[in-house]
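User: Can you fold this complex?
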Amino acid sequence: MDPNANRNALLSVLGTMLVLAMVHLAGSHGTEYQIRILNNIAIFIILAVSYNLINGVTGQFSLAPNAFVALGAYTSSLLTLTPAEKEISFIIEPCIWPLSVITTPFIVSLVAAGLVSALLAFAMGFPVFRTRGDYLAIVTLGFGEVVRVIANNTQSITNGPLGLKGIAEHTTLWWSWGFAIVTIFLVARLIRSSYGMAMKAIKYDEAAAEAVGINTYWHKMLAFTTSGFFQGIGGGLLAHLITTISPTLFTFFLTFNLLIIIVMGGLGSTTGAVLGAFLFTWGGEWLRFVDEPMDLGFTEIPGIPGMRMVIFSCILIFIMIFARHGIMRTREFSWNWLCGKLGIGGRLR
Amino acid sequence: MSVLSVGHLTMKFGGLVAVNDFNLELEKGEIVGLIGPNGAGKTTVFNMIAGYYVPTEGSILFQGRPIQGRKANQITKAGIARTFQNIRLFSELSVIENVMIGFHCRIRSTFLGATLKLPLYRREEKRMAEGAMKLLEEVDLTDVAHEKATSLPYGKQRRLEIARALATGPALLLLDEPAAGMNPSETQDLLQLILRIRKDYELTVFLIEHDMKFVMEICERLKVLDYGTTIAEGPPHEIQNNPRVIEAYLGEVQRAQG
Ligand SMILES: Nc1ncnc2c1ncn2[C@@H]1O[C@H](COP(=O)(O)OP(=O)(O)OP(=O)(O)O)[C@@H](O)[C@H]1O
Ligand SMILES: [Mg+2]
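Assistant: Here's the predicted assembly.
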């Protein structure tokens, strides 16, 4: 349909190669701190882009991503830890069989994390999508908390509050950015397909979506399950980046951060989710100084840990009041748009 | 066999009987009108046929098969498409996307196939885009295909809703006040449009309308509702002179005046 399709495909390939080249440069020349931030950005991109699919595109205000990230993190960690490591970690109760003896390669553990989280999302979807709006938000909030509580209490699977330690640091920039690119690519394609259009239709008018024959229940399930899949993978990558996980990592706070990201970027826009993940992670690092003591010359302010989150909350409130559509609204980046801006010719429709 | 066969349909909302013992037979190719004063229960009849309300009592047979209690999307897939009294377009989507969505319920590509753009999906996507363009031609909206649906004036939005309904491939079309908000010339165009699509797509049409001139001109048969009860039915010229119908409408005028 688009006369510039070939050029745009070429630009996409070149753009991807450029990102990978930068990843390579950062990997070989960056400091450990910089690499860490870049990894965080990639993981948050995966989480935000997939969260946006259900919240922004399909318009179902889920508050459960922390459940899927947690499940993904635990699944993949339990699969990569060796039996010996598990035996050392599980001091209160031994790890149950067969988890106690299984060890898989990293990539297998990530795919498994995605599948298990997708399965949870699918099962959760049955009760969740009997509700709408505020009720759906509350039900998913409840589920998110349930998963955390379960993680806290199933000693022989998750090692309870002690969590899992000594997870191998498998997550390199290649892994994280590789998956980020794949996630963006697949989710963007999905959104542009007629299934994605049907999901948008549900957001704009559910009754009308039913009238054009869309099985709204099923399409919500598809969006939710897909979202759960990528969040599970993101969780697995996260676990193998920070190497220590415990239930406290996956509280509502994580959901809240993702919410800030997608609202800031513009609910419904994948581009926005990517930008939001960048700004949030980068900004979060930059704002670290507010947590530390500050010398204003005439007086010294003691450091208040958590001050950053106060600022983020204020930013969220500000966005909700003054810029509810976020940076991108529901628009998406496109090569046609960029080339138009740069004045590079190209045929218009 | 009739296209639609409705028997003893009743809808109660708590103590309110919105529709009482409604019966209807629609033969293939007919255009039948449902009229009555405000609040008579016309939209409620549509909502029951289209699967939005589960009737308190009664049966609905579509092409010989019972459909009452089925979900709205299943009924659309079975071949009944509708438009809404208060236009319900997908506001942020473009005009052509609004129509393309109508084809989605009939594609064979799976979720994965569509995401991965497998050959089958590519073909189907092409067909959806072409089909949507053809329908836009039908309702004369090709020039605004890439505009936002809600940026269109009222009359065009109504036509767009009809195109979207047609995209689902219906055998029966339910139109809830299609001429509402249209000026006389737009109403004339609409009349021609409905006659044309009935012929081209072999449709049966059941419509609600307050514009009596329009109704008398296009409908072959009318049913009149008042307070949920059918007070008259027959060809337009008979209905026009039916004392009960006149009284129902006069009553409405009197209620409005004082
Ligand atoms: N979901 C509902 N819950 C309760 N009452 C309802 C519901 N839907 C319709 N009603 C009531 O049923 C009656 C019939 O409404 P309906 O919308 O079918 O009227 P109508 O004939 O379409 O009127 P109009 O010409 O104004 O569109 C009204 O009294 C209305 O208030
Ligand atoms: Mg009505």
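The mean pLDDT of chain A is 90. The pocket of magnesium ion (ligand 2) is lined by residues B 42-43, 85 (CB under 6 Å).
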